[in-house]
Design goal:
By secondary structure, the chain is an all-alpha fold. The protein has 16 helices and no strands. It has a domain of 268 residues.
């Protein structure tokens, strides 16, 4: 289905859902829908990224296929999220090659390995690949520290810059049409919703994914991936502090905080991703979108590749295979960074902004409800009507 057709069908479904309201209160999506009487293209983009794909609404709905209404919000929103990754990515010339085509990462991955091998040979010769290096600074015996810093600083700027541009464009589209200001409370509430994965909780029973049986497994696995990634970031930041401030270069012993954080983070990603892939394999084909399913699987495998190659490098860093393993691991990280603005890796930035927008809507709606309640309060006996003004 083309983008315009998809948006029009989405508006049709949302109007029907808003008339029915059987799913009232299920999650942020349905509470946000109730605040609208009509839906714009930007509303559909916002709702799609607010959706956590818990699928409770689909299994509760009496109007899904084969009913003529054909209501299927999870599939609709999955398709619209895929459109988001391409629409807001920058530079857009890479969006189709790296985001839409599943082979994009793997081409980049193999190019990344070749690049790392070339850099290792160029800075330290073949001994950088084939010779055993031990002790402090061993990694730099394979790949120059300066080269490593320059390459990954550039890739980091590319990744974060791409996300920031995408976030800016996305926010311009989903922000309040009345130009209501986002306040600190909205950021705090949205961040709390994001970190807790509240809308995968199903009010305690979990979400109906991959089947119609409620389970908290998916939420727990997402926590493994999310916090595993954060631990790896913390390990990298701490390693940079040791290397560039304390001037103690890697590799570090297994009991070192940098290594412990890295191991915990890597294991968290591996456990979470493997579990999510297992759930995805059992996913109800009536609910998921094939393209979004493939995109999600591709990103999961990419993240798993980075984590697994990192763990293998840790185990074999004192062997002659260290140089080759370093090239493979750094190649996978380089590919992840380069493709990040165009793949499902970007979904967390759009969902986070959608949750902040929802927190704002929630706050404003609560304030309006309280104001109406106050205005409807009866006047106490003996009180002057004028005393209320």
């Amino acid at each position: 289905m083309q983008s315009k057709e998809l948006l029009n069908d989405g508006k049709r479904q949302m109007k029907l859902c808003n008339a029915c309201r059987y799913c009232e209160g299920y999650c942020a999506v349905w509470q946000s829908i109730e605040l609208r009487r009509d839906f714009t293209d930007n509303d559909m983009t916002y709702l799609a990224n607010l959706c956590h794909d818990c699928r409770d609404c689909y299994y509760a709905c009496p109007f899904t296929t084969p009913h003529e209404f054909g209501i299927n919000p999870p599939k609709l929103f999955a398709q619209l999220r895929e459109e988001t990754y391409r629409k807001y990515a920058s530079p857009r010339v890479f969006a189709k090659a790296l985001g839409e085509k599943r082979s994009g990462f793997w081409i980049t991955f193999f190019f990344g390995i070749i690049l790392m091998v070339a850099l290792i040979i160029g800075t330290n010769g073949t001994s950088g690949l084939l010779k055993t290096h031990l002790g402090t600074g061993a990694f730099y015996e394979s790949l120059s520290e300066v080269v490593m810093i320059v390459v990954f600083l550039a890739l980091g700027i590319w990744m974060v810059g791409g996300w920031i541009i995408g976030m800016s464009r996305f926010w311009q589209d989903i922000k309040s049409p009345k130009s209501e200001k986002v306040i600190g409370k909205d950021f705090v509430t949205g961040t709390k919703y994001a970190l807790s994965l509240r809308y995968l909780g199903g009010e305690g029973s979990g979400c109906t994914y991959p089947t119609d049986e409620p389970s908290t497994t998916r939420r727990k696995l997402h926590h493994f991936v999310s916090y595993g990634f954060m631990l790896d970031l913390a390990s990298t930041a701490l390693g940079s502090f040791y290397a560039h401030v304390l001037h103690i270069p890697a590799p570090y012993p297994l009991y070192h905080p940098v290594v412990i954080l890295g191991i915990l983070g890597g294991l968290g990603i591996i456990i979470g991703v493997v579990g999510l892939l297992a759930l995805k394999a059992k996913s109800d084909s009536e609910v998921h979108d094939k393209g979004a399913q493939q995109s999600g699987t591709s990103f999961a495998v990419v993240l798993l590749t980075v984590a697994v190659t990192g763990m293998i490098l840790l185990l074999a860093r004192d062997t002659a295979a260290m140089g080759i393993l370093l090239a493979i691991h750094l190649g996978s990280v380089a590919a992840l960074f380069f493709t990040a603005p165009y793949t499902k890796f970007a979904h967390f930035v759009y969902r986070y902004l959608a949750l902040i927008r929802y927190a704002q809507e929630e706050r404003i709606a609560a304030g309006a409800a309280q104001e109406v309640k106050t205005q409807k309060q009866p006047i106490k006996p003996g009180a002057s009507v004028m005393s209320k003004h």
